[in-house]
């Protein structure tokens, strides 16, 4: 099993989760983070660190966000690894808890 970054991370990109990951399986895009499913060891350390509740265990991923499982795997192959915390995006607070942000994902 793996953990999955979902919709609520888009346009927020808090990186609190990155610092606690013991295997450095987070990858960073312009306005979204993803978890590499083949590198994730299912330790669950990242999930409670996300201030916007955007990280899910694979088996708890909401039905309407199932596409994020494949999206995390795809983008992790193309984006650079991130291992240190950074500031969230400048307008992150405005985007927190806005639904259906998929269209705003920048590759």
Label this structure with key terms:
two-stranded antiparallel ribbon, alpha+beta, FdxA, metal-binding, single chain, 107 residues, 18% helix, Alpha-Beta Plaits, 4Fe-4S, two-stranded antiparallel sheet, electron transport
Structure write-up:
There is one protein chain. This protein has helices at 16-20, 67-76, 92-95; strands at 3-5, 26-28, 33-35, 55-57. It has 107 residues and is α+β, with helices and mostly antiparallel strands. It has a single domain (3-89), classed as 2-Layer Sandwich (Alpha-Beta Plaits). It starts with a strand and ends in a 12-residue tail after the last helix. The model has no long low-confidence stretch (mean pLDDT 97). Residues 81-107 are annotated as: Disordered. Keywords: 3Fe-4S, 4Fe-4S, Electron transport, Iron, Iron-sulfur, Metal-binding, Repeat, Transport. GO terms for molecular function: 3 iron, 4 sulfur cluster binding; 4 iron, 4 sulfur cluster binding; electron transfer activity; metal ion binding.
Give a short synopsis of this structure.
18% of the residues lie in helices and 11% in strands. With 107 residues, the protein is an alpha+beta fold. It has a single domain, classed as Alpha-Beta Plaits, CATH 3.30.70.
């Amino acid at each position: 099993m793996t953990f999955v970054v979902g919709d609520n991370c888009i346009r927020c990109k808090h990186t609190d989760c990155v610092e606690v990951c013991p295997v450095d399986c987070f990858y960073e895009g312009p306005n979204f983070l993803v978890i590499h499913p083949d590198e994730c060891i299912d330790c669950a350390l990242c999930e409670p660190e996300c201030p916007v509740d955007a990280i899910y265990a694979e088996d708890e991923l909401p039905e309407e966000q199932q596409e994020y499982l494949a999206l995390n795997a795809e983008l992790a192959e193309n984006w650079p690894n991130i291992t240190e915390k950074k500031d969230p995006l400048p307008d992150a607070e405005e985007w927190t808890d806005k639904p259906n942000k998929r269209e705003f994902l920048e590759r």
